[in-house]
C-alpha cells in the first residue's frame, strides 16, 4: 500500500502553485492560534493529487503529529457510504425507493407525529403517510438527533439515551425500535431534518442483504475499493495512529475529550451507519475517486454510473433548496442554493449559496469538523480531516471552498 503523495505539478492541472499555498497559510493559523489540534487537507483533480498537507498534532498531549496515514473518526462522512450500500441493493431489486421502512423494520408501522406538549407527555396524532426508504435517504423522514436541542422530540431522544451515543444495552436493531416508538417531528416527506435516518437505513441494508452492516461494507465496498484502513473500530495494533478527539471550549479552542474519544477505539455494539466509521485520507480519497469516476475505481465497479448520477441530483420535494425546507441548523454551511440527493448535499445554485462552487457539486461532512466534496464539472475532489467537535465551531468548510477555487486558474 503506497503512501499518499502529490502526483502532479499544480500547473499541469490548472492550479496556481502560489495560490494553493494560501490554503496552508490559512489553516496553519488555526493550529498556531490553538483553534484546531491539527489537520490534513488533500486536493485532487482528474484523479491526481495536486496538493497534500498536514499540520499540527493528532495527539497534542503526546506530541504526535498529524501524518498522511493518521486515522480519523469521520462521523457523518459515514452517511454517503451507507447510502451507497443501500443503493447497491436497490440496483439488485432488493427494494423500491417507495417501499415503506416498516417492510424491513416492522416497528416503523403506524407512526405518530408530534403535535404539542412537553417531552414527558407529548400530544401526538397518526402520521398521514408511511415512512418510505427515500425519506431515509433524503432526511425527510421526520426523525431527529438528540443533540439538536431544538424540539421536545429531541429531548425525548436525549431522555432515551440518544444524544452523542446510544444506551449500552442496545444494538442497531434495538435502537431502531426505540426511535420508532418516539414521535416524528413531521409527516414523512413534508420537511427536512438532520437525524438518525441513515442509521435506520443501515438497518435496512442489514435486513435486505442478510449481512451485518460492517460485513456488507467490508465485502461490497471497502475491500473492492482498497479501503483497508476503514472500519467501525481501529485494531489495537494501529491504536497509536488514531487521532485524539477534542471538543471546543467557550473560546473555540480544543479540549481533549477521551470519553467521546473511546468511540472508534473498540468494536461498537451499534453499527452506526450514520456516524460510526474511522478512516484515513488515503481511503476516503479512494472513495471520492470512485464517486468522481461514476462508480468505478481501478477496475472495481461498486455502483452504476446512472444510479450515482441519480443519487447526486436534488431530490427535495418540488426541487426546493434546504433553506426552504430544513428545520433548525445542522452546520456552519448556509442552506441557500443547496439541495439534497440520496445521501449527499448537492449545489444547485452557486450564486445563491454565496460560496465559490459549481452546480452539481456534491458533498458532506462530519461532526468533528471533517469535510469532503466532489465537483464533476471541474473533475475536482477535496478532503479535509481533523478532530474537533462540533463542526460549527469554525467556518472551515466555506473557507476551504473559497481557498481551493481561487487557486484554479485554467
Automatic annotation (TrEMBL):
SUPFAM superfamilies: beta-lactamase/transpeptidase-like. Residues 23-402 form the Beta-lactamase-related domain. Gene3D superfamilies: DD-peptidase/beta-lactamase superfamily. GO terms for molecular function: hydrolase activity. InterPro entries: Beta-lactam-related, Beta-lactam/transpept-like, Diverse_Enzym_Activities. The keyword Cytoplasm does not apply. Keywords: Hydrolase. It comes from the Bacteria. This is Serine hydrolase domain-containing protein. It comes from Saccharopolyspora erythraea.
